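A favour, since you know our structure tokens better than I do. Could you add the entry underneath, on a fresh line?
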Amino acid sequence: MACPVKMTGERNAKKGTDPIFAICFGIFVIAAVIALGAYINNEFISTSDEKASTGDTVTVDYTGTYYDEYGNEKAVVFDTSYSGIGNDDNIAKSNDFKKDSYNSLTFTVGKGTLLEDFEKSVIGHKEGDKYKIVIDAAHAYVGTVTEKELNKTGNSMNTYELLTYNAFHELYPDVDIKGKTGMIEFESKYKWKAYATLTDNGKTVAVNYMPEVKEYTVYDNGKTTVKYKVTDVTSDDISFDVDIVNPVFVNSDGDIQMIKLDLGEDPIYICNISDNVITYKEGDGVERVNETLYFEIQIISVKK
């Protein structure tokens, strides 16, 4: 059988084209890698060196806490843009923490839509920077809040209370009283027995409290409990003591991680325990008022 003959011209042609092809292909690969690298850098890695200043539009992620910086033992989160933090039950939250969605925050520096110290804090920072700030109470959510006191022992309250129908329904939405006559028995927010009676053609509700002489747990978050110990009951008054078990103190002045008790028309926020005195703030949504705030902030983008 004849052997195939390799033509000299064919051999020479391949020797001439193979190096050229290899060079061209190499250049193509290098160009593709450069282009891909530029795309990844621009879209996912690149950060701007532009530093934020007044008038710039800045987007940030953030976490706000009371009592201490985020990550420290006594810190309590009151707001965050991170769903991972907001949805983590192992991270302590404030009493009024509530988030339906989590988004980065965009604002114009100096426009005054946010706390002034928060806005000013981004000045001089660039994309990718992560830092922490403290806003003292005088420059945070300032408001007029009256602090009241409750003794640990020797307290009293009336056995009778008159509420508007709307106020009663808001406190006890599951108690069916509309159109009813006579006294309706229910469990009060204090966890003791009570009776409700419609008055004034259904516009108001008369509430009569009838506790037993014993201890009632009115708050329990799995760590701290608040107990009302009824010591005496007359036709007019209820005498009781208050015991707060395992409160979390945040400083040596008796300030604690606030405890929200939603027992009446206005919730109370217990904020200090000193000797026999319990201090609280009263009113819906006053938890953040006149409190020092701690923020951890990360700059996402800066637009001039």
Summary: The chain has four helices and 17 strands. The first strand starts at residue 57 and ends at 66.
